[in-house]
Amino acid sequence: MSHAPSPAGPSNRARPVTKSGPAADPGARPADQRAPRRTALVTGASSGIGAAVARRLAADGDWRLVLNGRDLTRLEQVAAGTSALTVAADLSWPGADRRVTETALDHLGRVDLLVAGAGVGWAGDFTGMPRARIDELVGTDLLATLHLVRGLLPHMVAAGSGRIVLLGSVAGSVGVRGEAVYSAVKAAVAAFADALRYELRGTGVGVTHVVPGVVDTAFFDRRGAPYRRTWPRPVPPERVADAVLTAVRRGTDEVYVPGWLRLPARVRGAAPGLYRRLAARFG
């Protein structure tokens, strides 16, 4: 997902990554007769779910990509062998979201798909959470997402098409002990997805909310506490990436990964008192 922020500097410069493509197919249609390739901006692409989504889009072969992440080295490793442009930037820093969106629009001409995958976490009792970590988590997981969408959405609406994919968490659906701020932020992302979807009805622009559970990435190590439960078992980030691409193709509003996670969210919505008693007992 992400790691501790670093100050702006040389690693925050946008760097193109060239691609050595396969030999031309003699039977292929001329470039001017092919359908135009779609365009996508993926944030959080230097690791975890964002990196898996970037690789899936690149493998699909139908996308021109701009990838954003904090770690330039990892970002360029993800982009290696593709024609993606990398923009290393910490989205919690003032103005970083504007630079990323402007770079994407300048390079791609338009953005058909935004996958807002940048995020950080923190585990522990809220009373012990440093103020700086609260600001970092809210800034990266919520405010940066809002600013990115705000920067790209008018262009999508003007074009009459596009899709915004917001990466949420089951923590935002049910609340998780020891992750109060993360749960609150992801709940806000879920509400934003719903409200924005209603607002965009009839514009040709769609909103997909992806709700993963436990994912096998370095996110848990970076949040300060590894995942130690035996159940539910973590799913690979590629499974979430596959769900993202399927949702984009089908125009799905919301998808849980794995799908059974929708059940506890429904139980909480239908019988919140019962759910809270179960959660208090079993964690």
UniProtKB/TrEMBL annotation:
Region named Disordered: 1-38
UniProt keyword annotation of RNA-binding present: no
Any one GO molecular-function label of the UniProt entry: oxidoreductase activity
Cross-referenced Pfam families: adh_short
Keywords: Oxidoreductase
Family classification: Belongs to the short-chain dehydrogenases/reductases (SDR) family.
Protein's name in the database: Oxidoreductase
